[in-house]
Batch of 2 targets.
Target 1
Amino acid sequence: MKSYDVIVIGGGVIGTSTAYQLAKKGYDVAILEQNDIASGTASRTDGATLISDKQPGIDVLQGYHSVELYKKIAKEFSYDIEFKSCGFMYVCETDAEMAAAEDYAAKVRAQGFEMRVIDSKEMCEREKYLAKDLKGGLWTESDGLVNPYKVCFGFIEQGKKYGLDVYTHHEVTGIKLDARNQIEGVITDRGNFITNKVVNACGVWAPFIGRMVGINIPIEPRKGMLLVSEKTDIIANTEVIEFGYWLAKFFVDFKRPVSELVEKHNVCMNIETTHSGNTIVGGCRLFRGYDIRSEHEIIQAIAERAIRFFPVLRDINCIRTFGGIRPFCLDQLPIVSAVEEVPGFYIAAGHEGDGIALAPITGLLMSQLIAGEKTDFDIAELSWARFKGIDLAKLSARAS
Ligand SMILES: Cc1cc2nc3c(=O)[nH]c(=O)nc-3n(C[C@H](O)[C@H](O)[C@H](O)COP(=O)(O)OP(=O)(O)OC[C@H]3O[C@@H](n4cnc5c(N)ncnc54)[C@H](O)[C@@H]3O)c2cc1C
């Protein structure tokens, strides 16, 4: 039976980043993935690496550290992750959104990060296809884009240089514990492994791994959908998002002057043009269980909203659509933590719509936790202990 210092379960962007960082620290580490690398949510996403779609506080702090790490990784890795430091723009349709955006930007600046209020004229100079009747927006210089698939494969290729072992098509079906509840090994459908440290990096499937060690992890799948255009000239130079998107992410009851269809499916515009010249537009936030099918009404609503902000899209063909599920944690912060009641069990999951952006810092923080080092910044707010005294069985019931 193979034996490892640490086994990472899940070959998505969080698991590959964590495995890479651990291998780099000299650990004998393996990654176990039930399908292929980047076959879960990491392959059903766009690639915004943003500080600016986070909540002020630890969320913004994680975003900042992660974007800084992306800049380093993009230079160090032999594998091209298509990192582009292109800036980021929020656009506001109404005065109410503009007021909320200004308030948000002031909070981000108070934390020491740059975020500038810009007028409609500057917005249209930066994005020539943007609708001309918007109120204004926010601009952040440091944010960027990556190719999420390539990020996962970049971590794997770089990790292998430090001895990382990769087992794809190995579904974890159980975890062995000793009499003191300490991790002893991992059971898969293709054989067992010995280890006394396991990282659960299974995104929306993290609750199922949690149950294998007797804990309820409060993560639920939150659906999104994206439309991909044919290749064209660059439609959007940067990632552009309507500010209503941020409001909808954190304030479920925020109302916008939108059509019934857009309202019904909680659709907000985000757009990016990829390295290969296809434009991706989204998106929505819905609780639909584990269903990732494309839904016709949502496609219509996303197209309607995208054309509202980028009228040129009316004349551009959509070549495919897809859905994905974000790992939504009940208090809207990821869990990056040891689990005290199960010695040797760690969780790195629950990044909702930010897993691509936060992968580098999550992997680094997790490797520091496992090594018993001081983390780059205080991450008590990301700990498993924050759920003590909360009825998690009730909260995670929807994940079953
Ligand atoms: C439409 C959409 C748009 C998004 N846009 C962005 C964006 O622009 N920027 C951003 O930062 N984030 C974005 N996100 C969010 C981001 O994609 C996720 O946060 C991220 O992919 C989660 O990564 P993960 O590694 O935790 O999960 P996953 O990528 O799902 O990886 C988990 C892995 O665990 C494996 N697994 C599960 N169970 C087992 C088992 N029993 N045994 C072995 N393996 C197992 C799965 O097969 C899977 O590969 C978006 C998400 C969606 C849906």
Target 2
Amino acid sequence: MHEMALCESVLAVLEREAQSQSFHRVKTVWLEIGALSCAAPEAMTFCFRAVTRGTLAENATLEIVRTPGRAWCMDCSDTVTVGERYDPCPLCGGYQLQVTGGDELRIKELEVA
Ligand SMILES: [Zn+2]
């Protein structure tokens, strides 16, 4: 599962942060997931629980923050909001879109102990 690998990299970041900022437990992780990233929030929650078992983030709460997809429509010469990667432009219905944002997956904030 793709989300498993994503959660493993999130955990790697947490472990690195724990060393540099010397904390021992992660209580809450706010993870920003763009609407156009290929991570499904439900699967992320499930995998996060599995991946963090026995680690500093065991039983940590994963708070998922969805960010909207942004794309540039060449036909409209405008930035539009899109829900899915291959959605048409909501203004003109065209497919000449270049994704400009909303495909990220990053840790926004941590609550640690
Ligand atoms: Zn358009």
